[in-house]
Amino acid sequence: MATFWMLFFIFYFELLLKTGHCTETSGQVLSITPNTQEQVEVLRNVSTQYQTGLWKPASPHNIKELTQVHLYVPANSSETVRNLLQRHGITHEVMLSNADEIIEMQMRNESGDPRSGSTFYQRYHNLEDIYEWINRTAHENPTTVKAILIGSSYQKRPLYALKLSLNNKPNKKAMWIDCGIHAREWISPAFCLIFVQYSLSFYKLNSDITQILDNMDIYVLPVMNPDGYKYTWTKDRMWRKNRSPTNGTSCIGVDLNRNFDANWCTKGASPDPCSEIYCGAFPESEPESQAVANFLRSNKDIIQIYLTIHSYSQMLLIPYSCTMDEADNHSELYEMVKQAAENIRRYYRNVYTYGAGAKTIYLAPGGSDDWAHNLGIKYSFTFELQDRGRYGFLLPPSYIQGASNEALIALKTIALKVIEKTQPAAGSPQDV
Predict the structure, then answer these.
(1) Which residues of 44-68 are buried (b: 16+ CB within 10 A; e: fewer)?
(2) CATH code (residue 418)
(3) Is the bond preceding residue 229 a cis peptide, omega within 30 degrees?
(4) Burial grade of 385 (CB within 10 A; 0-12, 13-18, 19 or more)
(5) In angstroms, rounded to a whole number, what is the distance separating the alpha carbons of residues 343 and 331?
(6) Any idea what the CATH number is for the domain that residue 87 is in?
(7) Is residue 132 part of a domain?
(8) Which residues are in the Peptidase M14 domain (predicted)?
(9) Which of 27, 96, 107, 398 has minimal Cβ neighbours within 10 Å of its Cβ?
(10) Which residues, at least 6 apart from 256, have a Cβ–Cβ distance to it below 8 Å?
C-alpha cells in the first residue's frame, strides 16, 4: 500500500508540473510603467527592499512616471511582488516567464576549444575559457597579436588587452575597445571576441577592416571586470559591479562605470556601497578602472578612438553622460553616431537611438567614456548593444552574431570617418 501511495503522489506531482497548477519555479522579468509618483515610490521600494533585480533603469532613483521599468523577480519573491503591485493598482507585463531556464541554458558550454570552429563565437564563455582564448589567439598569431597585462582585478585576476597590429606602418594611431565593465552584460565580451576573430580573418579580404587596420592598431580588453563576470557564472547571474568590499558594510562591489574622474559621484551616482551605482571611495579607487586609466594616460598621444561596449537598449552614445553640457566636438560626434545608426538600420533593419548620454538616458557621472574624452581622446563612444528589453541581459546565444554585426558596422562607420578626418587615406574605399 505504501508503494501505491508513493507512486500516486509521484504521478500527481508530475501532472501538476505539466499542467502548470503548482508554484512557479522560475524567475520572471516584468515590464512595469508607473503612472503616478506614488507608484514610482512603490517600485523604488520593491526594487530595494525585496529580493529583485532592477534591469532598467540601473538605479531606483532613475525610476520615473510613464517610463518603462524592467524588473527581474526571482521565483521566491514572485507572489509577494505581484500582490504588492496589485494592491497599488500597478499593472505589469511578463517579458520573460522562464528567466531561470534561460540562464541555465546559456551556461551550458559543451566546448571551450576555440579551434572547434565558428560555433565557438555563437556561445557565451566563462572566464576561464576567455583567458584560454586570449592565450591561444596571441600564441597562434605571434606577429600580429600581443597580449598585454595592464593590471589586475581586486581578486588578482589578470587584465589582458590584446594589441592587434597588422602591419608595420610607422607612427600609427590606435583605437581602444573595452568590454565587460558591467558583469551581467554578457553580450559585451562576446562581441570583443568576435571583433578580434573578424579582424584577423578578414584583414585583406574586407576593404573596411583592412583600411582601419592599415591605419590603426587596436587594443581590445575582452573583460574589464573579471571578478564580477566570474561571479555571474558561479553565484548571481544578475551581478553588475566588481567584487571589492567596503569597510563598515557587508555590501560588495563598486560600479566601475561610476568610478572614473568625470564629475565623480555627483547626481546619477551613489555614495552608498549597497547601491548598484556606487561610485567607490574616490576616483579610480578600483584596480580595474585604475589599470585602464593608467594605460590610456600612458598612450593618450596615439589612441584616437575610445569605445566601451555595454548592453542593453540599442544606443550609440557620445559624451557627456556626467553633465547636461555638450562636448566641445558634439556636432562632429553626433554626425558619426547618426551615420552609424543609419547604416545599422539600412543593413540590419534594427533601430538604434543615438546622442549624448545624459540627454539620451540620464545623468551617469564617473563614466569611462567621459573621462577618456576629457583626457584628450576626442572620439569617445559607448555602444549599448541588443536588445531593447525582450531578453535584456539574458540575450540568447542565437542573437550574438546579429548584435555583433550591428556593433561592427557602427564601429567601422566611426573608425573610417575618424581616419578620413585625421589621417591620410590608405587602403581601399569605404565599403560599409
Answers:
(1) bebbeeeebbbbbbbbbbbbeeeee
(2) 3.40.630.10
(3) no
(4) buried
(5) 18
(6) 3.30.70.340
(7) yes
(8) 123-418
(9) 398
(10) 181, 182, 224, 225, 241, 242, 286, 288, 289, 368
Name the nearest CA neighbour of 104 among 254, 259, 238, 233.
233
Kindly state the cell numbers that stand for 82.
505581484
State yes or no: is 384 an active-site residue. yes
Specify the amino acid at residue 210: T
Q: Is 36 in contact with 74 (CB distance < 8 Å)?
A: no
**pLDDT tier, 424 (very low <50, low <70, confident <90, very high otherwise):** low
Query: Does the CA dihedral 363-366-370-376 come out positive or negative?
Result: positive
Identified catalytic residue from 185, 284, 384, 406: 384
Q: How far apart are CA 111 and CA 118, in angstroms?
A: 12
Angle at 70 between CA 65 and CA 71, to 5 degrees: 110
Q: What is the C-alpha end-to-end distance of the chain, expressed in Å?
A: 74
Q: What is the pLDDT of residues 185-226, one digit of tens each?
A: 999 999 999 999 999 999 999 999 999 999 999 999 999 999
Residue 283: its pLDDT value, please?
A: 98
Mean pLDDT score of the chain: 91
Same domain, 307 and 379: yes
Longest dimension (CA), the chain: 88
CB atoms under 10 Å from CB of 303, counted, come to: 23
Q: Which of 231, 233, 223, 199 is nearest to 213 (CA)?
A: 199
Tell me the residue type at 162: L
Residue type at 429 in one-letter notation: P
Structural domain range at position 93: 19-97
User: Rounded to whole angstroms, how far apart are CA atoms 210 and 325?
Assistant: 36
pLDDT of amino acid 420: 96
